[in-house]
Every structure is written in structure tokens, then in C-alpha cells.
Amino acid sequence: MDTALRDAYIRLHEKYFPGTELPIAFEVGGPIEGAEKAPAPRGWKCFVCDLAKVRRGASLVFDEDSIGCRGGRFYLGYDAERSPDFRYFLSTGKPGVEGERYKQTPEIVDELDRGTARIPTKGKSIVFKRWDRLAAADNPDAVVFFVRPEVLSGLFTLANYDQVDPNGVICPFGSGCASVFHYPWLEQQKEDPKAVLGLFDPSARPCVPSDVLTMAFPMKKFEKVIGFMEESFLITGTWEKVMKKIARSNALNSV
After folding, report:
1. Distance of alpha carbon 81 from alpha carbon 246, whole angstroms
2. Contact, 131 vs 3, CB < 8 A?
3. E strands, 124-233, where?
4. CB neighbours (10 Å) of residue 100?
5. Distance (Å, whole) CA 157 – CA 233
6. Model pLDDT for residues 23-54, shown as the tens digit of each residue
7. 52 to each of 84, 178, 217, how far by Cα in Å?
8. Cα distance between residue 84 and residue 163, in whole Å
9. For helices 219-228 and 3-16, angle between their N-to-C axes, nearest 10 degrees
10. Which of 119, 143, 204, 207 could form a disulfide with 77 if both were Cys (CB 3.0 to 4.6 A apart)?
11. pLDDT digits 0-9 by tens, 214-227
12. Each residue's pLDDT tens digit, 175-228
């Protein structure tokens, strides 16, 4: 990637979202030099929990052996098919299968799954790095922010800044890994991609602080965002007031 673009965003981030964490980025089949392999989990483990290390600055390489959740394997593209009892697992359950009750009936799950795109990552690694760890050899597919409401409001408004369509951000139903990886990757393949608001999955919520959600930008959209940040609402007195709230939020959450 263009390291000048990387550095420009770091400066802009500190200027307009001061004291908040940088986003992370992922690339399917990207260079793995300098990144450690995500260890194989012992039993079930949510993929989103592993991303805490990336948010702190570690670069991680994931592959089929790194994912300890069948949903994670599906949404990262390593499994093309669901488990036979998935329709019951996501809904009402049945004897021997505890249901999450995220959908009212197994039939709704069936219809939902028929419309869910499959991602062709079989045999490929997926590299996650924090934004400031990206190098010239990297070509990220998407950028993912873990943010509180004030920063989220800024990202949401930036995502809609340069377009007539009011739906510059989508919020599709799905697991935590769907909102962090699956849908952002799919959007990156489109000519006019949208940002993805997420991490509403109750099963993934234990992996993040109580007031944090995600906003993921396909890289082709994020490059545009960086280019117009300093002509946007971020330079107004309105955002100065929001930045004071960001500072208070930082102080509260550093205790």
C-alpha cells in the first residue's frame, strides 16, 4: 500500500479522534512476514476475541486451523456449508442441540442461509494488522474500527459524506465475524461499496468493552474518506464539541 497514505491517516486520526485506538486491517492471502500465526484454539473460541491482540499492535495470520468456531470458519470462507443442525442452532434448538434463539424458526434460518454469499478463501491465509503496522507490501481489503459512539458518529457521517444515497452504511444481520470480515470483504468486491456497522452479535459481545461497536470500511471506500476528511464537518465547531466528549470518554475509560 501507499505508506504515505498510511501515515497521513495516522496524523488525521490523532487530530480528529485523539487518544482513540487506530483501526485494524485485513488482507486475504497477504504477506505474512513479521506476523505470528494465530494459535489453534482449544475447543470453542470466538474469532473476535483473538482480534484484541491485533488491536494492541500484534500482527496475526489466520488459517483454517486458527478458527475454533464453525460459524467463524463459514464467515471467513473456510467452510462452504453449514453444519446439519445449524437451522436449529440459530433458532429454537431441538433435543441435543441448544438453540441460540436469534431467529424465530428453523425455516427463517434456511431462507437466510440460501441468500448468504460464500467467500472463496479455502487454502488462503488471512492477515490482520493494526493500521500503523501496515507496510508497502500490504494491500488490505478492508479497515475495521472498534469505537465508542462519538467516534462512531464521525465515521458514520464520513461514510455518507460524498454520496446522495443516504445508505452509505449497512448493518446486516450476522455474527461478529460476519460484520468484521464477511460483509466488508463482499463490499470491497463492489464498484460502490458501503461501510458496515456491526458487532451486535450477543455471542461476540464478551470479546469487546461494553460500549464498543465496529465500523468496517472496504479499502476502496476508506481511501476516499482519507482524501476528504479535512474538507468535511471534522473542521467545524460542531466536531470540536464532539471531540470534548471523546476526551471525556478517554479519561473515563483509562481508569
Report:
1. 43
2. no
3. 126-130, 142-147, 169-170, 195-198, 213-218
4. 15
5. 9
6. 999 999 999 999 999 988 777 778 899 999 99
7. 31, 17, 19
8. 42
9. 60
10. 119
11. 999 999 999 999 99
12. 999 999 999 999 999 999 999 999 999 999 999 999 999 999 999 999 999 999
CB of 119 closer than 8 Å to CB of 182: yes
Residue closest to 150 by CA, chosen among 248, 226, 78: 248
- Phi and psi at 201, nearest 5°, equal -65, 115
User: From its phi and psi, is residue 208 left (phi > 0), alpha (psi between -120 and 50) or beta?
Assistant: beta
In angstroms, the Cα distances linking 183 to 20, 178, 218, 233 are 24, 6, 9, 27
CA distance 41 to 220: 33
Is residue 126 helix, strand or coil? strand
Task: Give, for 123, the enclosing helix (H) or strand (E).
Answer: none
pTM of the full predicted structure? 0.95
